Amino acid sequence: MLQIFSTKSLVGIDIGTSAVKLIEIDEIKGNYKLKNFGIAKLPRETIVNGVVINAEPLIQAIKNLITNLKITNKEAAVSISGHPVIIKKISLPIMTEDELEPVIETEAEQYIPFDLEEVNIDFQILGINEENTDQMDVMLVAAKKAMIDEYIDALRNAGLKARIIDIDVFALENMFNINYTWEENETAALIDVGASVTNINIVRNGSSIFNRDVFLGGNQITEEIQKELSVSFEEAEMLKTGEEIEGIDQELLDQTIAKTSSSISREIQRTVDFFTGSSYAEIDHIFLSGGASKTKGFREMIEEKINSSIEFTDPFKTIKYDKKTFDTEYIKDISLFAAVGVGLASRKIGD
Length: 351
Prior knowledge:
It is built from 11 helices and 17 strands. The chain has helices at residues 55-68, 97-100, 104-108, 145-157, 168-179, 218-229, 233-240, 250-279, 298-306, 328-334, 339-345, and strands spanning 2-3, 11-15, 19-28, 31-41, 47-48, 51-52, 75-80, 85-93, 119-128, 135-144, 161-167, 187-193, 198-204, 207-214, 285-289, 311-312, 319-320. The strands form 4 sheets. Strands 1-11-7-2-3-4-17 form a 7-stranded mixed beta sheet, sandwiched between helices. Strands 14-13-12-15-16 form a 5-stranded mixed beta sheet, sandwiched between helices. Strands 8-10-9 form a 3-stranded antiparallel beta sheet.
């Protein structure tokens, strides 16, 4: 989306609804090593559907991470998602990137439901269209300038400079590509279930061919537990992930989690069904990540809905780490939170 020339590595800043994740990775000749990882919780209503509602707690959370982790690199990659972001795969006559650059805004007018003066537009040529070889597929991305400015301002006020503004689903793709290998024409669905948004990116040969944001996530489960069992939001969060609290009606808890998880699972199922039905292609592998994917029984419920096995994503699969600095159990515990952040921290200018 936005790239400014830099020769330094980047700090990945994943700003979610409930927390900020900071990840720093060193790369030497294609080998990655985890340098820093930290999570800072955000008060509710700080971020809503990807939009910054209250900047001060966000700024303070990033500052605390920088201080506590002793971060010296002040150049960052951050990603966005939500209603102000539009992603469309379109087909156009075959042309070079240089030829497409001056005409992309004209082409975008029919696909972007915003005034073009309000958005930043970017694109990526995906290759020849399989059904019409006289055309090429292009991934078109537009994001509201006001939203981008909010994120840039928050990072600047926290002492960081935004060098890359990415999109959550593409950060997932980047994470996948440095950790997993695939056979030719193999298709994988990457599903990241956050607090309020579920990002879905379906990739083939390592490139996105379909994506969707579902505006449901772990907070819906937490809020339903809070309401049905008359507990605090914090206690509901604990119960959601399997922690025990004395005096809780376990049967009611299980029913509440199942009911709300079913709504999210249904949307994931609809997305998968739409893709397979419209593209006549099967999905070979499904990978699940995001903090809400730790919800008790959640993975099993999605597996039942889509009648397919699901693997938890390992964003540190090929990333080495010093076991004196990072305990193996800690890495295992945080891995589901880290998928987007790893994708951001491994970004390079111009890729």
